[in-house]
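Continuing from yesterday's entry. The apo prediction looked reasonable, so today I'm repeating it with zinc ion included to see how the binding region is handled. Same sequence as before; SMILES copied from the compound registry.
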Amino acid sequence: MSIEFGVDYYPEHWDRSRWETDARLMQALGVDVVRMGEFSWFKFEPERGAFDFSWLDEAIGLLARHGIKTIVGTPTAAPPKWLIDQDKSILPVDAEGITRGFGGRHHDCQSNAKYRGHCKRIVSVMAEHFRDNRAVIGWQVDNELGNSHDNLCTCDSCRSSFHAWLEKRYGTIGELNEVWGTNFWSQNYTAFSQIPVPRITPNSHNPSLLLDWKRFCSDLIVDFARAQIDILREKCPDQFITHNLMGFSEKVNYYDLGKGLDFVSHDQYPMGYWMSAAEKTPAALASTLDLIRAMKRKNFWIMEQQAGPAGWETLGQTPRPGQLGLWTAQSVAHGADTVVFFRWRTCTFGTEEFWHGILPHDGTPGRRYEELLKVIERLRPVMQDIKGICAKNDIAIVYDYDQYWALRIQPQHPKLSYVSSIQQYYEAFYRRNIPTDFLNPNDEFSGYKAIVAPLQFVLGPGMELKLRTYVSEGGVLVLTMRSGVKTETNKCRTDGSLPCGLVDMLGIEVLDYDCLRDADIPIVWGKGSDPALRVSGCWWSDIVTPHEGTQVLATYGEEFYRGTPAVTAHRYGKGMAYYVATQPSPALMRLIADHVTASAGLKRLVDTDESVEAVRRVGESAEYLIVMNHDGAAHDIHVPASWNHLLDETGSKIAPYGFMVFRKEKTPV
Ligand SMILES: [Zn+2]
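Holo prediction written out below.
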């Protein structure tokens, strides 16, 4: 059975007399799968050791009779009150040393041995109970790991675990003192047991301690998931294991978390009530999906696709007519093999009672149900043909958790954001309809014609060699300001001019720099004869001395470093290394992207208006062009005649928030 669409369903929130109606409506909608149970620990185990899965067995059976399979969630994101009351040491402790209380979710410490024991018990019993149920096709471990944890737990258990982690990493306390630079402010330690967790202090903590704390917390969460994955792997070899990620969330290194999973899933909320305007642009949404595809370099599931206005205490906007379909098409276009909508019906109680599902509070199908009915019908044949076939693009942007964390600790400029920097680079190529991958810094680079690696702030010898080899063998590489600044233990490098280790490859030196606190810096592209070539940068100016033979593409237009290079290109071996000395404005980004596109021979997919996105997917039997209008007005599109409309679509006008699918027979390779 092929699984393309699903819903997140909470049968325990509704009277049993309603379940049959829900199953019938789901079947009519085209639902193939439901996810259930991920917050239902109390319903499974109302008191210690007294398990009851009968209600879920009944729901699974009823749905199966309507052709609907089940993914079971392990309920470890919501430990019940009786469990916490038995041992309050399970509760997490925040940075102020205050114990957080029961009442939200994930009111737990993930290093706590007693909590680990409870998790092992419930997951083992569930695995044994559901493994032979043929309607259960897979597992979701926990829910959105890293969410609901603030800055993670600073309890005694976590402190001891941190000490063990540090001892394993550095061996001796002398080595730790050296690589952290603890001579500063008399922070020298004589034993690992003295090292603090980052609770609040009168001033900032040592940046080396903070970076290792972030690495440790990520490893702890990965290990917490791993303990459940190991049980499920052993007991349920015929069922898949996944987890729902949260895009650019910083808490967990998703590359590491993804290693233990069969595939990753992601929760996509294009109109999340917590999101800034910049996080909700079509390009930012596309970048999130492309990022998820990078985690295992393969296709993924959407485990929660927004199905209505979302909110807790406050709400986000209501999806406009067409937007639910548009967002679903965008997820599919960027690599979702299955889309599960959150949630089936809007709950009438609890924190998420205004997090709207497909059905409203009263359970009567309305606009959202009718829209998704058509969307599912249109997208299913495309999804069946492209299932499992991963897009492979010519350009990639390196996404590196070390840079993310180190720049969170020391952002250099108060507004500098690692994620928004890389999303701005992504957007420059996105707007040209040049499809872009994200790249794990540990993955192979050589398959790409061009790589953009913004803000390589922390740079060790391994990455240095990798970048150098990539360019010398013919790659086109874009590096930026604040690269080669720090060691892998987050101390400043001293082994030459900035960008340390890359001066000869880039053909430049940075001997001075300027944090742009009060104003952006004007920049002149080329000779700047056309006003369109007068652009700007923000956050930072590296003051660059070019070496002989280095091409200067743009210069600063003001300040004491007026006329010095802002963007350079340097031939190195068989390739080309660009250096961008500031955070470019959108206009400067476009000029850089055009130069890199020409230099690397990248190809645009099709020409579209700026608000219209086009993504090509190659299937088993055909190629597809998915064209999406992110604007509230209709747009003309100009798709070459070789592409045929799929289904009953006609014309060259795309509706507000509409999407169209074009097909052509697969070109023989
Ligand atoms: Zn803890």
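Comparison notes:
- The chain has 17 helices and 27 strands.
- The pocket of zinc ion is lined by residues 92, 109, 111-112, 153, 155, 157-158 (CB under 6 Å).
Will overlay with the apo model tomorrow.
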